[in-house]
Amino acid sequence: MPNVQVRNNSHRTLKDATCTPKVNLMFMKTHKTASSTLMNILLRFGEKHQLKFALPDGRNDFFYPSSFFRTQVKSYQPGLCYNVICNHMRFNAPEVEKLLPPDTVFFTILRDPADLFESSFHYYKGYMPQTWMIPGENQMEEFLKHPNRYFNPTGFNSFYLKNLQFFDFGFENNLEKDDPRVKEGIEYIEKQFQLVLLSDHFEESLILLKDALCWTMDDLVFFKLNARNATSVSRMSPELRTRAREWNGADWRLYQHFNATFWARVKAYGRSRMEEQVKELRRRNAEMEAICIDGGRAVGASDIMDRDMKPWQPIGKASILGYNLRNNIEQQYEELCRKMLTPEIQYLTNLGVNLWVTRLWGWFKDNFVRFGFS
After folding, report:
1. What's one Pfam family here (predicted)?
2. Overall pTM > 0.85
3. What is the mean pLDDT of residues 267-277?
4. What strand order describes the sheet that includes 25-28?
């Protein structure tokens, strides 16, 4: 295993000064949960410390929505051991565990199912034929008012429309919230993962992750990646949020459970200490924004000058924002800035993944698919 040295840091506690940074990591990358931003943090940490990644082969995920198998790993050979897994997969614990050391830290991230449903519905609309004929200007609202009228559980990509988080963890997504298998699934996740973060409280989540992994604040600096343009986000009334949570009942129970454990961890960490750490993280991020980002903010795809900085777009609308690098960045920050701003597809390519399947689909999507979804 790599020899990772703990640097001196005036903000460290006694525990921080004596612990050793964790380098064996399994991040269960869930969909539409700020997981691409967290993945960028992990990729940078792994590169910095020369860790061995278990990467997919041919595409940017492990053949999702199929269940994960270790043979999907690029250049897999029996007996190989890895430090980090962090790409999208449909979780399969026995197969994952065979790739990683016994002391690996398993962690993941969740999101309020109402917000996740809104994001998933719009992002994946072009990939879900059963949504194409929903009438009215607000198709999501119409769907949530009459979900059983439009939802086909056996339809193509139907998992994007119901309990997507529960599905990501390898469970049946059409279970109702009171089904005993939902409770069993939550208990299973709790046993498998030492830490469950919340994208709704992303900065606090990173501080808890820092504490659990014995990392430094420098390891956590980030820019939001794969974020949507504000004009493409639908506002949800309290009634519609309630409908979304009820429709995604298994995900809502999952989220409620780990929302409680999350805030218990924050309380144990110390509220005032957490506030100080979040404030420091925001200060560091603001410094990096001033150093790295031209104009200091994210921009639409058409305004991104460097092709290598352009993020993947869903079918029908270029709603995902990206960044322009500042010119004349100080040499000491140039590499870090570029890596912090590099979208997932390009970052994986830089790591040596041949994304021929992903790129073929992207070419087909951009040149032949013209549904004009909003």
Report:
1. Gal-3-0_sulfotr
2. yes
3. 98
4. 84-85, 25-28, 105-110, 195-198
